Amino acid sequence: MTAQDRPRQPRIRHNDYGVLRPPEPGSWTPRMSVSVVIAAYGHQDKLDLTLAGLAAQTYPSHLMEVVVVDDGTVPALRLPEIVPENTRLVTTEPGARGRASARNTGLALADGDVVHWLDADMVAFHDEVEAHMRWHHLAGYLVVMGYVRFVDHEPGTHTPAQVRDAVAAHATETLFDEAASEPHAWIVDLAARTDGLRTERDLAYRVHVTNAASVNAGLLRAAGPLDTGLVLGEDSELGYRLAQAGAAFVLAPEARTRHLGASMMMRDGEQVRRYNDAFVPDHIPVMRWRRTHPRRQWLVPYVEVVIDVSSAPYEDVRATVDGFLASSLGDLRITLVAPWGSVREERRDPLASPHLDLLLVRGLYRAEPRVRLAEHVPGSAAPVPYRLLCPAGWVPGPETVLRLVEEAAEHGCGLVSVALDETDEVIAARLEHTGAFARAALVVAPGEPLDSAVDDVAGTRWADGATLGFLPAAEAEPPKRRKAEDPALRREVARLKAENARLAEELAARAEEPEKGPAPHGRGPAPRGPRALLRRLR
Prior knowledge:
alpha/beta
């Protein structure tokens, strides 16, 4: 869909969704459809209660479907007597099991304009679906997270009919001991610190928790399905990719559910965190507190550097690429853009090749894992959060990339343009925030420059290249190998520094003492004033 064909979208700056004004429940006419996707494994009794609660929703039944995915339960799950009007049950294939695969199975079958993830052990309040959907009618790039409380649950305490009747009577809270219930504490704390998530920026994605979140279906399919390679943390990883696709994240405390029993995090939080620490940071570059190693590489880098080398001299390309490879921020990848498919090596007379410079570039970096070749500038850097477009022949200093990204993050900028040189036209590099550009592409008006929309949704600014450490290739020093430190030499230097400090203190103390002349006939103690001490130091 082009900008001309798309309905006009409101412009949410960063994550300040306060510009949206949802209607009061029951006071509006819905038009969008929703698919509630439930991944289930075992616990038929809890699934029955979940479906009973959904059968009493205020959202129009003709606009709501429920897809239950049995993730290989033995004996197989079944649909109970009390279910929403449009409910179906499917089963995952034996070779595609796990929570991510089950939800992806439901996603592939979902027909709704919005996909509402719900766990199979949740009881939704009467207007829970409506509370989600009233937000989605306002903008097409939202992720909405409901308000979950965890309640004690004993099997057999309630029948599906009792749950349906209580939900229909707007009395869901009477089913449970509300005083003993617990909230999603970390979400409540995050909401308190960020004005309901409105002041959060890069970390808002964390509230995409698939026990009670909803996502615009088009946005979800653009970001891609859940990563089946992740056993835990897959919802956070998808939330991160949704952010890179332009999502804004809304907390909807009025979208209430009750979770039957404690969550895995509540039961085994330390072990869950330990597990996730090993698998999730590879996929989410903005988890900087988990990426503290100064040398190692990650599956998804923090910055992608894109350099058009199609007509640049080999020496200029080498200077630029080597400068980036030597950056203190090593969590980056470099993409070299040129018509590589047409580059052919002359086996008999290699120096006569019309593509000699490109051949040399390809040969130099063929084994460098952080450098890749591309025919065209990729349409997006996603899931990489930052893309730096730099002309060949300009060399960053060791701290340039880090300083540039920190400046963008400090100001929340979607674009930082870096002035490198000015002749007839300005030569510039560009640091683009992937999520901001994706958001801008969703809201840009016909004929409007994309950078203008980026300025609206995130802000733009200019920076001076020389101040950041950029130099022309002719003036830049090539990176040099660091000399390995000799531990014995380091200890000796430390010893000498300590001795020097001790002598300096002694000198200062002696300077406070009065000078004493020599004893008659040259006898007596040696002079002890500062001059004598200086002679010792020499």
